[in-house]
Structures are given as C-alpha cells and as structure tokens.
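Researcher: Next entry: COX assembly mitochondrial protein (Puma concolor).
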Amino acid sequence: MGLEAAEEHLRHVEKDVLIPKIMREKARERCSEQVQDFTKCCKDSGILMVVKCRKENSALKECLTAHYNDPAFYEECKMEYLKEREEFRKTGIPTKKRLQKLPTSM
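Model: Predicted structure:
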C-alpha cells in the first residue's frame, strides 16, 4: 500500500494526537528564536514573567500559530508521520529508538 492509500486510513489518534505532536516539535524548531527569547525572559523575570514577558509570549504564539494554521506544514508533518509509520511496520522499531541505536562513535 502506497502513502496515498495509507493516508485515507489515518486513525483518529493519528490525526488528532500523533501528527499534531510532530507539528508541535517541528514548529518549536522553526520558532526556536522566539522560544529562546521567551525562555530567557522567563528565567530573567522570575515570578513577574506573566507581566514582563507578554511581548515574547505573543511573538512565540504568533510564530507557532502561523505554522499550525499552514495546510502545507500539516501535509509535510503528515507525510513525515506516514514515512515513520511505514518504516515501523517494516522494522518493528520506532524511529526514536532506531535513531538512538545508531553508533555515535567507532
């Protein structure tokens, strides 16, 4: 079964949990500058972060939301998920475990 056929058979958990999880991870990578700014602001502001970091929080939300609402980004993440699922069905090894098992030094 090709990826196109597999796509029609996405389970509820895949559409609503697993693909959005990939989207969140990738969006955080793509918004890393905003993530860093917000994190730094929170560390520097302590208990006042809610008040002091509004600008950084808004910038981060704006960046993440732009990705979440982008149909092309969703498609990209869905294809990545389908490739991982296909690979898992062939090997029985989840991607994260497969990547961890690669030797880091020879």
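Model: Note for the record: The CA atoms of residues 5 and 82 lie 11 Å apart.
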